[in-house]
Design brief:
The structure holds 2 protein chains of 2 kinds. By secondary structure, chain A is an alpha+beta fold. Chain A has 6 helices and 10 strands; from the N terminus they run βαββαββαββααβαββ. Classes of the chains: A alpha+beta, B alpha/beta. At the A-B interface, helix 1 and helix 5 of A face helix 2, strand 6 and strand 17 of B.
Amino acid sequence: MAHWGMVIDLRKCIGCRACAIVCQETNQVPPSRWRRVVDCGISGPPERLRTFLPISCMHCSEPPCLDVCPTGATYRRPDGVVDVDHNLCLGCGYCVVACPYLARTIILEDESDPESEAMSQEPGMTIAKLDSVGVATKCNFCLSRVEAGLAQGLRPGLDPEATPACVAACTAGALHFGDLDDPDDAVSQLVRENRTGRLQEELGTDPSVHYIVE
Amino acid sequence: MIIDARSVPTDETIETDVCIVGAGVAGITLAREFIGQEFRVCLLESGGLGPDQATQSLYWGENVGHPYYALDTARTSCFGGTSHRWVHALGGGRLGARTRPLDAIDFEERDWVPYSGWPFDKSHLDLFFERAQAVFKIGPYTYDVEAWEDPEKTPRLPLLDGRVKTTIFQFGARDTFVYDYRDEIERAGNVITYLHANVVEIETTETARTVTRLRVAGVQGNQFWVSAKLFILAMGAIETPRLLLLSSKVQNTGLGNQHDLVGRFFMEHPHLWSGRYVPSGPNLLSSTGLYRLHTVNNVPVMGELTLAEEVLRREKLLNYCVSIHPVATLSYPEATLKGVDSLKALGAAIRRGEVPDDFGTHVRNLVTGVDDLAVAAYRKAKIEVGKVCSKWPRRMVVFRLNSMSEQAPNPNSRVTLIDERDVLGRNRVQLDWQLSPIDIRTIVRSQEIIDEELRRAGLGYLHIKLRGETPPPNLHGGWHHMGTTRMHVDPQRGVVDANCRVHGVSNLFIGGPSVFPTVGYVNPVLTIIALAVRLADHVKRLMA
C-alpha cells in the first residue's frame, strides 16, 4: 500500500498561485480555501530572495482533526490520505479549530468567488459542490484523479492525469507527489537527497507534506 | 539545441547572426519565425526551463509610485516568460490569458490623449494579428459579436443605439509558450538556446551606432560574450529599459537614451473592481452567459462591455471595457438601495421610540425611492416563493464590475535605475507608476454612460462607487508592462522606429510590449505576438 505524500521545493516556488487556482477550479471551492500560497517575505540585499509557502492539508499520520471529530466523519485511509465523509459530517467545525495548518474549511451555501473568471459550463452562483456545502472540507490529494488514474494503470506523480491538479499545474516543478513509502519514488529521493522540513513537526502530527528548504 | 549557459567557459565568445535576448512570448515567437532560415540564431534566457526563486530575485526593484506588485512577483524569468503567470482557469486544469487585437482608434493620434498615435494604423497590423492568432493557437481572427453569440442561449445584452457595445475576448492557454514550442525550438538546427544566461551589458562601437556584442553572466560567476550581426531585446518593458540604461559606457545616459525617453511612459491597464450592475430582474442571469468565460466551438471566449468609438471621441475618453461577474447576494452595502436603507433606518428608530438624526433625508429617500422599494418587495417575494419552489432562483443576483481600461501615455510614469545592485552587479530598477486624471475620469465616465444605456434599455442600472479623478488604492495592474521604449518615427519622440529598431543604432531591435506607444484596454499578448511576427519578417529581409 502506498503512502501518498507531497514534496514542495521552496527554491522553485515563485508564488504564481497556479496550484491554488487549479485547485479552486478542480474541486469547485472558493479561492485559497483548500490550498493557499503565503508570501513569507524577502531576504535583504543583494540576494533579495523571496520565499513562498504553499499550504494545504498535510495529511498527517497523527491528524488532530481526526481526534476531535464527534461523528467519525474524518478518517485516515490506509494510503495516508485524510478524508472526510460528508454524509457523516455535522459541520460542527471542531476540526477547523483543531487543525494547526488552517487547512480545513466550511463552505457556506451560495459562497462564491466574486473575482473569479474561471471557466464554467453552467454559470451559477454556488461554486461549491452540493455535497460539500455546510460541512467540513479539505484537500484530499485529488483522490478522484489519483484513483481513476490508478484504475487505468497510470502512476500518480508521473502521469499528470493521475496526479493532484495542483502538482500537474506547477510549471516550476516545485510540487511533487508520490509514494513516500517507496524508496525509489521521486518524492522519497527528494526527501532523502535534500534538506527538508515539515511544518510544526513538534506537534507530533507527522505530516505527509515535506518542504525542501535548501 | 538548449544549453545551460552556466557551463560556458568564462571569456568565450559565441558567434551568431541574430541574437534574441529573452525567451518569453516575444522571444519565442521570434525564434520560431527564424527556424529554417539560412542564418544562425542565439536565444538567451535569464532563467531555466521553469521558474526558480534565485532567478526571480534578479527582478526585485523598488516601487515608489501608485501601489504596484512587488516587481519580482509581477513577471517571470524563464523559458515561456510571464505566460507562466497566466491565471485564467480555462477548464480541465488549463490556465491561460485573455486577448484580442487593439481597436482601430488605439492606433490614432487623438488630440485629447497626449503622445498618442502609432506610426501605422490597424489595417497594417491586421495580417499580423491574424498570424498571431495561429501562433497563440486560439480561434479564428474574428471578434464580431455575431460570430460568438448564440441568439438563443448567449445573446448580447439588448442595449439600444450602440453607445455601449459588447466586445469579445478569446483566451489562449499558457502551455503554448511554456511547453508546446520548447521542443520545436530545441530541435531547430539553426537556433541555439542558452538558459541561465543574463545579459549584463550591451557593447557598441565608439559612436554607439552599432552593437558589437553582449556581455553575458551566469549567477555562478562565469561571464562570456555573444557577438552577432543583429540583436533583438525581448525582455519585457522593465528589463529592456534596464539593460539599455545599464549600457552607458558610450552614451552615458544609456543606449538609445539620447532624448531621455528610455524607461519613460510606463503603462499598465488599470484594473479596478468597483461598482455593481443591478439588473432589472432576477432572470437576467440566465441571459448573460455571453459575458462569462465559456467555450464556443472549443474556443474559450468572454464578452465584456465597452464604449463605441464615437462616444470616446465625443467624451474625450480613453478606451475602456468592463466585465460583469454575478454575485448571489445583496449584502454589499454599496449595492443596496437608498429607499430601502431609509425605510430600515426609520423602522429601527421608531421601534426604539426615537427620531433619527437625518430624518429629512430618510423621508426624501422614501419618496424618491418608491421604485427601489417596489424592486426590493419584488425580490423579497421572489426569495420567499423560491424557498417553496426550487425551480425559482432563491437569491437575487447583482454583478460586480471589473474595469480594465487604457492608461494614457505619461512621461513621468517611468522605470529608472537605483544604486542597489543585484548579485550580478547590475543596478536594480525603480518603478514609479504614475496615473493621470484622465485615466480615472475614463473609468468613472464610462460607468456613467453604461449606466445611462442600461437604464434606457430597461436592463437595470449601475451602482457607481468611484468618483473624482484620484486613483483609488485598490486600482491595480494586470502584469501588463508596456511603453518604456515607445515606438515613434521621430527619434525625439520615440526610442524605436516603426520597424522596432532603436533610433541611432543600426542593428539593435526591440520586440515586446515596451514599444507600444498606446495600449488600449486589451491584454497585450496578441499585439506582442503580432509585432514579433512583423519584426521577424523585417529581420528576414535584412538578413537575406
